[in-house]
Write a structure and sequence with these properties.
Blueprint: E1 2-7, E2 20-25, E3 28-32, H1 38-49, E4 60-62, H2 68-71, H3 74-85, E5 89-93, H4 95-110, E6 112-114, E7 120-122, E8 129-133, E9 140-142, E10 145-151, E11 159-165, E12 168-172, H5 180-186, E13 191-195, H6 204-208, H7 212-216, E14 218-221, E15 235-236, E16 242-244
Parallel strand pairs: 3-4, 4-5, 5-8, 12-13, 13-14, 14-15
Antiparallel strand pairs: 1-2, 1-16, 2-3, 6-7, 9-10, 10-11, 11-12
Length: about 240
């Protein structure tokens, strides 16, 4: 499995793009979260890593939750699929995330389209989205990937991920307060990407106090601008870099 880091920052970042990752196996990819400007993020990550990806190249977009720093690029993703690719965009999420996404984020910009003849058409989520429902009680197969989810401690429904392919697995915490039960679930994977930030997020000090065996299998993401990358006891993911899981 491969991990291409598109963004590493939080909602208030001025140094980085908001956190977004591409998970790959052989020639298939999943996009995990989709902030704006996702196409620019993909182009820049491709230039630095040598992995050229476009929004239409993904087996699916996997969305952890509907905060804007994780989903502000979904409208662009879906419009690209609609106008350029001529298809619905595959979007995998828990049903609660699916239910919130259209009325709270997408409807204002996507519910009507003006056509060349001057006619206006009205639209719903089903016109743009090929929904893939992720379950808390079962795994979901998307191409070569198996995706499992677990609810996190956050303001709105948010779901951590375990993604497996080719005999390897990656755990992704999504946004969460410190949660030992979640950590145990994540560390069933070979490597773990965990957020760290202020407020309701997971403090760096809590992760730095984990046993060495866990720290060595963890990467940090969603860190604030003032996070000291070089002083971290846990390796921070670097924007635009390609990693092997």
């Amino acid at each position: 499995m491969k991990l291409l880091v598109l963004g590493v920052g939080d909602a208030f970042a001025s140094k980085y793009y908001s956190t977004s990752l591409a998970v790959g196996f052989e020639d298939q990819w999943l996009l995990v979260d989709c902030p704006h400007p996702i196409r620019k993020m993909l182009r820049e990550a491709g230039e630095s890593s040598g992995v050229a990806l476009e929004v239409g190249d993904f087996a699916a977009l996997v969305l952890t939750h509907s905060h804007a720093d994780h989903c502000s690029g979904v409208e662009g993703y879906l419009f690209f699929e609609h106008f350029v690719r001529g298809r619905k965009g595959p979007l995998a999420a828990h049903p609660e995330v699916h239910a919130a996404l259209w009325p709270t984020h997408l409807a204002a910009g996507m519910s009507q389209l003006l056509h060349a003849d001057g006619c206006v058409s009205r639209h719903e989520a089903a016109d743009f989205i090929e929904p893939i429902a992720l379950s808390e009680s079962d795994s979901t197969r998307i191409g070569p990937f198996t995706v499992e989810i677990r609810r996190t401690i956050h303001h709105i429904p948010t779901f951590a991920l375990r993604i497996s392919a080719g005999g390897r697995s990656l755990g992704l915490s999504a946004d969460t307060s410190y949660d030992e039960g979640l950590l145990d679930w994540l560390f069933e994977a070979d490597r773990v990407v965990h957020e760290t930030n202020y407020g309701v997020h997971t403090p760096y000090a809590a992760l730095a106090s984990l046993p060495e065996e866990r720290r060595e299998r963890m990467w940090l993401v969603h860190y604030p601008d003032d996070f000291d990358l070089d002083a971290s006891a846990i390796e921070p993911l670097r924007q635009g870099q390609l990693y092997t899981v």
